[in-house]
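In response to a reviewer's request, we include the raw inputs and outputs for one of the modeled complexes. The two entities were modeled together in a single run.
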Amino acid sequence: MNILEILSYGFIQRALLAGTLIAVLCSVLGVFLVLRRLSLIGDGLAHVTFGSTAIALAFKLYSAASLLVSLPVVLLASLGILKLTEKARLSGDAAIGIVSAVGISAGIMLASVGGGYNVDLLSYLFGNILSITYEEVLIAAGLFCVVMLLLGLFFNDLLAITFNEGLARVSGVRTNLINAVLVMLTALSVVLAMKLVGIMLISSLLILPAVSALQLARSFKACIALAALQGCCSVVAGIFVSFLTNLPTSATIVMLNLLFFGASCGLRRLLGAKSSS
Amino acid sequence: MPVEIVATEGLGCSYREGCVLEDISFTVTAGDYVGIVGPNGSGKSTLVQALLGLVPVSSGAARLFGSRCDGFNQWGRVGYLPQSLHLLNPVFPATVAEVVGLGLLSLKSFPRRFTRHDRNTVDALLEELGIYDIRTKLIGELSGGQQQRVLLARAMVNEPELLILDEPTAALDPETRQRFYQMIADINRTRGVTVLLVTHDTGVIGQHASKMLYLDKRMLFYGSFEDFCHSPEMSSLFGEHSQHLMCHRH
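The model returned the following structure tokens for the whole complex.
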């Protein structure tokens, strides 16, 4: 089967379109999160998404309709993480751990009350981008535009707080607001990425492109661009490879990201050795 | 009449472990170069952080340019170089030019975008501080002295009227340290920038600063270096021999 034949399938087209948009979002946000040592926030929010999806399914809201519940719940949870770190004097990882555990517990309880796990809920654990619907692609495109617009508007503020929060405050950056913007953008992206890689693997989409880009980037903007490029490549290649080999798409995307990370580390060593010789 | 830049009245700061600063009252006027000195844990960094609103004030009041510090928003008039250089992430992927450019954010309103003019401003300052050649290098790849210069450039790029430097020479060797102090003195003299500089080098800062503020949780001295050297209170605090050494290193 050649590439054109594969591309002729509607589900492949939808997966490629939504997948690349989500990959760009996660990769770009991942750079800020990794540098701010909030790498695991994606994991925590994914667990909350699991809980919120269980609520949605209990109300018979499936696929795109489940976002009506997930989006507000995960946005609130992201602000909850922020408030816990500010008010309860917790470190970021502890706050993420609390919200994460509460999210997954709520999901398990609701699933149990609702008559046990069903196929829909389990599909959120490991993701299934090939089953993405036309409505979900439209929602992904809409949210992609919103997140990218906000990222563009707040880019320099985000860079400033990522570099040093104290310095950013003395430069007039409203750090509380920008922190809230960052976690809420992450929440939006995590909800979108659920269908792509699922709860178990969502962190990889936020972390791996970012840490690979950090190996090679020679400026902050280059780092963002490299991370986005890797995110896109891993999703596109992952969809084709999984289609041809009949492997699970989400796991294939993660493994390809790991491969890119290894290659980036190798390339960095090679370039380092060259410049020092 | 001299213009008031910084003023505190009975300023106090407390953390959970107790009082860090108590009853600090002083005024800094335009063009002053104030060296803030004192032993470890004396509250020097807390004092400048309180002035910048980075730590809460538990008693008294502080003003910057006549505005209370807790509501201060004229950040374009202030440049700040923090103490915690070691907290900089060594893998942070920003270039020198990108880091210095962030200092211009205080002059921008939403959305804070940089222009070609901003890039030229950054380049001109890097040239002036002798670090233009490293403008495309990553901040984490620089030596301590170079990083210090870059962060000084970041603090100065908005052409502030007040420069607050918190132990800027801690990571520098004695020769680079001396050059750094000289550079700050030149900035103070030629640009008329008011400087508050926190340091351990009581003797060295005395060569450059117009005023000394000696802290040990309370303000023990505030005045000229000459007065510091002849102060009986300082003499009894340090002992005559130590005071002589501090005052005659130059």
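As requested, we also summarize the result in words. The mean pLDDT of chain B is 88. The two ends of chain B are 32 Å apart (CA to CA).
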